[in-house]
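REQUEST
  id: r-88c1
  op: predict_structure
  target: Mechanosensitive ion channel
  payload:
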Amino acid sequence: MKEILNTKIIEIGEYVLRLQNLLSFVIFLVIVIAVYYSIKRLIFRSKTLQTSMKYTVSKLLQYIIIFLSFIISLKLLGFNISVLLAGSAALLVGVGFGLQNIFNDFISGIILLLDGTLKVGDIIEVNGKIYKVLEISFRYTIVLGRDENYIILPNSSLTSNTVINWTHSEVASRFKITVGVDYSSDVQKVMRILKEVAAGHAKVLSKPEPFVRFEDYADSALIFGVYFYTDEVFRVENIKSEIRIQIYKAFKENGINIPFPQRVIHFSKDADQKDSNQ
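RESPONSE
  id: r-88c1
  status: 200
  body:
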Protein backbone atom coordinates (compact mmCIF):
# COMPACT_ATOMS: atom_id res chain seq x y z
CA MET A 1 0.00 0.00 0.00
CA LYS A 2 2.84 2.32 0.92
CA GLU A 3 4.54 1.61 -2.38
CA ILE A 4 1.33 2.45 -4.26
CA LEU A 5 0.94 5.77 -2.43
CA ASN A 6 4.56 6.62 -3.21
CA THR A 7 4.02 6.07 -6.92
CA LYS A 8 5.41 8.95 -8.93
CA ILE A 9 2.87 10.66 -11.19
CA ILE A 10 4.88 13.67 -12.37
CA GLU A 11 8.59 14.29 -12.07
CA ILE A 12 10.05 17.57 -13.31
CA GLY A 13 13.61 18.26 -12.19
CA GLU A 14 13.64 18.18 -8.40
CA TYR A 15 9.84 18.32 -8.14
CA VAL A 16 8.01 15.01 -7.75
CA LEU A 17 4.24 14.63 -7.51
CA ARG A 18 3.30 11.38 -5.82
CA LEU A 19 -0.06 9.63 -5.64
CA GLN A 20 -0.37 10.33 -1.92
CA ASN A 21 0.09 14.06 -2.57
CA LEU A 22 -2.68 14.04 -5.17
CA LEU A 23 -5.06 12.04 -2.94
CA SER A 24 -4.35 14.34 0.01
CA PHE A 25 -5.09 17.37 -2.18
CA VAL A 26 -8.40 15.93 -3.47
CA ILE A 27 -9.57 14.93 0.03
CA PHE A 28 -8.58 18.36 1.39
CA LEU A 29 -10.45 20.11 -1.44
CA VAL A 30 -13.63 18.09 -0.79
CA ILE A 31 -13.48 18.85 2.93
CA VAL A 32 -12.92 22.57 2.33
CA ILE A 33 -15.87 22.83 -0.08
CA ALA A 34 -18.14 20.92 2.31
CA VAL A 35 -17.12 23.06 5.28
CA TYR A 36 -17.51 26.31 3.34
CA TYR A 37 -21.04 25.55 2.12
CA SER A 38 -22.07 24.29 5.56
CA ILE A 39 -20.90 27.50 7.22
CA LYS A 40 -22.46 29.61 4.44
CA ARG A 41 -25.79 27.83 4.95
CA LEU A 42 -25.64 28.56 8.68
CA ILE A 43 -24.84 32.23 8.01
CA PHE A 44 -27.83 32.75 5.70
CA ARG A 45 -30.15 30.88 8.08
CA SER A 46 -29.16 33.17 10.95
CA LYS A 47 -31.97 35.33 12.30
CA THR A 48 -29.69 37.73 14.16
CA LEU A 49 -27.74 38.98 11.13
CA GLN A 50 -29.22 41.40 8.59
CA THR A 51 -29.28 40.33 4.95
CA SER A 52 -26.51 42.74 3.98
CA MET A 53 -24.33 41.57 6.88
CA LYS A 54 -24.88 37.92 5.89
CA TYR A 55 -23.56 38.75 2.43
CA THR A 56 -20.53 40.57 3.87
CA VAL A 57 -19.61 37.74 6.26
CA SER A 58 -20.08 35.17 3.50
CA LYS A 59 -17.81 37.08 1.10
CA LEU A 60 -15.07 37.52 3.70
CA LEU A 61 -15.26 33.84 4.61
CA GLN A 62 -15.02 32.89 0.93
CA TYR A 63 -11.86 34.91 0.30
CA ILE A 64 -10.16 33.79 3.54
CA ILE A 65 -10.84 30.13 2.73
CA ILE A 66 -9.56 30.54 -0.84
CA PHE A 67 -6.34 32.15 0.36
CA LEU A 68 -5.63 29.57 3.09
CA SER A 69 -6.64 26.68 0.84
CA PHE A 70 -4.25 27.85 -1.87
CA ILE A 71 -1.30 27.92 0.55
CA ILE A 72 -2.15 24.54 2.06
CA SER A 73 -2.77 23.00 -1.38
CA LEU A 74 0.72 23.96 -2.53
CA LYS A 75 2.15 22.23 0.51
CA LEU A 76 0.03 19.10 -0.04
CA LEU A 77 1.10 18.89 -3.68
CA GLY A 78 4.73 18.81 -2.61
CA PHE A 79 5.78 22.36 -3.40
CA ASN A 80 8.33 24.03 -1.13
CA ILE A 81 6.53 27.27 -0.37
CA SER A 82 9.53 29.02 1.18
CA VAL A 83 11.66 28.30 -1.89
CA LEU A 84 8.90 29.51 -4.21
CA LEU A 85 8.49 32.78 -2.31
CA ALA A 86 12.25 33.38 -2.13
CA GLY A 87 12.77 32.62 -5.82
CA SER A 88 9.90 34.85 -6.92
CA ALA A 89 10.65 37.81 -4.63
CA ALA A 90 12.08 39.97 -7.42
CA LEU A 91 9.21 39.02 -9.71
CA LEU A 92 6.68 39.90 -7.02
CA VAL A 93 8.21 43.37 -6.63
CA GLY A 94 7.86 44.06 -10.35
CA VAL A 95 4.34 42.68 -10.47
CA GLY A 96 3.49 44.71 -7.39
CA PHE A 97 4.32 47.98 -9.16
CA GLY A 98 2.23 46.95 -12.15
CA LEU A 99 -0.73 45.87 -10.03
CA GLN A 100 -0.70 48.66 -7.45
CA ASN A 101 -4.10 49.99 -8.63
CA ILE A 102 -5.62 46.53 -8.38
CA PHE A 103 -4.05 46.10 -4.95
CA ASN A 104 -5.54 49.46 -3.93
CA ASP A 105 -8.98 48.24 -5.06
CA PHE A 106 -8.43 45.01 -3.15
CA ILE A 107 -7.65 46.80 0.14
CA SER A 108 -10.58 49.17 -0.45
CA GLY A 109 -12.86 46.15 -0.89
CA ILE A 110 -11.75 44.76 2.48
CA ILE A 111 -12.47 48.14 4.10
CA LEU A 112 -15.95 48.32 2.54
CA LEU A 113 -16.83 44.80 3.63
CA LEU A 114 -15.54 45.23 7.18
CA ASP A 115 -16.69 48.69 8.22
CA GLY A 116 -20.30 48.24 7.04
CA THR A 117 -20.72 51.80 5.72
CA LEU A 118 -21.73 50.35 2.36
CA LYS A 119 -23.99 47.30 2.05
CA VAL A 120 -25.80 45.41 -0.68
CA GLY A 121 -29.15 47.11 -1.31
CA ASP A 122 -27.95 50.59 -0.25
CA ILE A 123 -28.79 53.62 -2.38
CA ILE A 124 -25.69 55.75 -2.89
CA GLU A 125 -24.77 58.96 -4.70
CA VAL A 126 -21.37 59.15 -6.39
CA ASN A 127 -20.32 62.22 -8.40
CA GLY A 128 -23.91 63.42 -8.53
CA LYS A 129 -25.35 60.10 -9.81
CA ILE A 130 -27.63 57.75 -7.89
CA TYR A 131 -26.94 54.00 -7.80
CA LYS A 132 -28.26 50.91 -6.06
CA VAL A 133 -25.56 48.55 -4.73
CA LEU A 134 -26.00 45.02 -6.11
CA GLU A 135 -22.72 43.31 -5.24
CA ILE A 136 -19.52 44.13 -3.36
CA SER A 137 -16.41 42.11 -4.20
CA PHE A 138 -12.81 42.62 -3.17
CA ARG A 139 -11.86 44.53 -6.34
CA TYR A 140 -15.04 46.21 -7.56
CA THR A 141 -18.65 46.99 -6.69
CA ILE A 142 -21.51 46.38 -9.11
CA VAL A 143 -24.25 49.02 -9.01
CA LEU A 144 -27.48 49.70 -10.89
CA GLY A 145 -28.13 53.19 -12.24
CA ARG A 146 -31.50 54.85 -12.63
CA ASP A 147 -31.23 54.30 -16.39
CA GLU A 148 -31.27 50.52 -15.71
CA ASN A 149 -27.60 50.25 -16.66
CA TYR A 150 -25.19 48.07 -14.69
CA ILE A 151 -21.97 49.83 -13.72
CA ILE A 152 -18.76 48.38 -12.27
CA LEU A 153 -17.12 50.81 -9.86
CA PRO A 154 -13.54 50.19 -8.63
CA ASN A 155 -13.61 49.99 -4.84
CA SER A 156 -10.86 52.60 -4.57
CA SER A 157 -13.22 55.17 -6.13
CA LEU A 158 -15.70 54.55 -3.31
CA THR A 159 -13.15 54.96 -0.52
CA SER A 160 -11.30 57.95 -2.00
CA ASN A 161 -14.31 60.02 -3.14
CA THR A 162 -17.25 61.48 -1.24
CA VAL A 163 -20.13 58.99 -1.26
CA ILE A 164 -23.62 59.87 -0.02
CA ASN A 165 -25.42 56.82 1.38
CA TRP A 166 -29.12 57.66 1.30
CA THR A 167 -30.09 54.49 3.18
CA HIS A 168 -27.30 54.35 5.78
CA SER A 169 -29.71 54.98 8.66
CA GLU A 170 -33.33 54.06 9.26
CA VAL A 171 -34.39 57.71 9.09
CA ALA A 172 -36.48 58.40 5.97
CA SER A 173 -34.88 60.64 3.34
CA ARG A 174 -36.34 64.08 2.62
CA PHE A 175 -36.74 65.54 -0.85
CA LYS A 176 -37.86 68.82 -2.31
CA ILE A 177 -39.85 70.13 -5.25
CA THR A 178 -39.61 73.82 -6.17
CA VAL A 179 -42.72 75.55 -7.54
CA GLY A 180 -43.27 79.13 -8.73
CA VAL A 181 -46.68 80.84 -8.91
CA ASP A 182 -48.02 84.18 -10.12
CA TYR A 183 -47.69 87.22 -7.79
CA SER A 184 -51.47 87.60 -7.75
CA SER A 185 -51.91 84.15 -6.15
CA ASP A 186 -53.30 83.59 -2.64
CA VAL A 187 -50.23 82.44 -0.66
CA GLN A 188 -52.15 80.49 1.97
CA LYS A 189 -54.23 78.71 -0.66
CA VAL A 190 -51.13 77.79 -2.66
CA MET A 191 -49.41 76.34 0.41
CA ARG A 192 -52.51 74.34 1.34
CA ILE A 193 -52.86 72.85 -2.17
CA LEU A 194 -49.17 71.95 -2.36
CA LYS A 195 -49.28 70.15 0.98
CA GLU A 196 -52.47 68.26 0.08
CA VAL A 197 -51.04 67.10 -3.24
CA ALA A 198 -47.81 65.87 -1.66
CA ALA A 199 -49.63 64.13 1.20
CA GLY A 200 -51.99 62.45 -1.26
CA HIS A 201 -49.23 60.55 -3.06
CA ALA A 202 -49.16 56.85 -2.15
CA LYS A 203 -45.38 56.69 -1.74
CA VAL A 204 -45.01 59.82 0.39
CA LEU A 205 -44.78 59.03 4.10
CA SER A 206 -47.44 60.44 6.41
CA LYS A 207 -44.93 60.63 9.29
CA PRO A 208 -42.95 62.81 9.08
CA GLU A 209 -45.65 64.62 7.15
CA PRO A 210 -44.87 66.77 4.10
CA PHE A 211 -44.66 70.53 4.54
CA VAL A 212 -44.39 73.66 2.40
CA ARG A 213 -42.15 76.73 2.70
CA PHE A 214 -42.58 80.15 1.10
CA GLU A 215 -38.95 80.51 0.02
CA ASP A 216 -38.40 83.59 -2.10
CA TYR A 217 -39.65 86.52 -4.18
CA ALA A 218 -38.29 85.82 -7.64
CA ASP A 219 -38.35 88.17 -10.63
CA SER A 220 -41.58 86.77 -12.05
CA ALA A 221 -42.93 84.39 -9.40
CA LEU A 222 -43.44 83.57 -5.75
CA ILE A 223 -41.23 80.55 -4.99
CA PHE A 224 -42.43 77.69 -2.78
CA GLY A 225 -40.64 74.54 -1.68
CA VAL A 226 -42.58 71.29 -1.19
CA TYR A 227 -40.77 68.94 1.21
CA PHE A 228 -41.72 65.29 1.60
CA TYR A 229 -40.29 62.05 2.98
CA THR A 230 -40.17 58.68 1.26
CA ASP A 231 -38.52 55.27 1.48
CA GLU A 232 -38.44 54.95 -2.32
CA VAL A 233 -35.09 56.72 -2.66
CA PHE A 234 -33.93 54.98 -5.82
CA ARG A 235 -37.09 55.89 -7.77
CA VAL A 236 -37.73 59.26 -6.14
CA GLU A 237 -37.47 61.11 -9.48
CA ASN A 238 -40.55 59.22 -10.66
CA ILE A 239 -42.36 60.28 -7.48
CA LYS A 240 -41.35 63.91 -8.05
CA SER A 241 -42.65 63.75 -11.61
CA GLU A 242 -46.01 62.35 -10.47
CA ILE A 243 -46.34 65.02 -7.77
CA ARG A 244 -45.54 67.79 -10.28
CA ILE A 245 -48.29 66.50 -12.58
CA GLN A 246 -50.82 66.57 -9.73
CA ILE A 247 -49.68 70.07 -8.71
CA TYR A 248 -50.22 71.30 -12.27
CA LYS A 249 -53.72 69.80 -12.33
CA ALA A 250 -54.60 71.23 -8.91
CA PHE A 251 -53.37 74.71 -9.88
CA LYS A 252 -55.39 74.61 -13.11
CA GLU A 253 -58.54 73.60 -11.24
CA ASN A 254 -58.08 76.42 -8.71
CA GLY A 255 -57.14 79.16 -11.17
CA ILE A 256 -53.53 79.48 -9.98
CA ASN A 257 -51.09 80.42 -12.72
CA ILE A 258 -47.49 79.24 -13.11
CA PRO A 259 -45.81 82.29 -14.69
CA PHE A 260 -43.10 82.54 -17.28
CA PRO A 261 -40.30 85.14 -17.08
CA GLN A 262 -41.53 88.69 -17.78
CA ARG A 263 -39.87 92.08 -18.04
CA VAL A 264 -41.62 95.43 -17.49
CA ILE A 265 -40.01 98.41 -19.23
CA HIS A 266 -40.83 102.00 -18.08
CA PHE A 267 -40.25 105.03 -20.32
CA SER A 268 -39.86 108.50 -18.79
CA LYS A 269 -41.80 111.47 -20.19
CA ASP A 270 -38.61 113.47 -20.76
CA ALA A 271 -37.23 110.72 -22.98
CA ASP A 272 -40.48 110.65 -24.99
CA GLN A 273 -40.38 114.45 -25.52
CA LYS A 274 -36.74 114.35 -26.67
CA ASP A 275 -37.57 111.63 -29.19
CA SER A 276 -40.52 113.64 -30.56
CA ASN A 277 -38.42 116.85 -30.93
CA GLN A 278 -35.81 115.00 -32.92
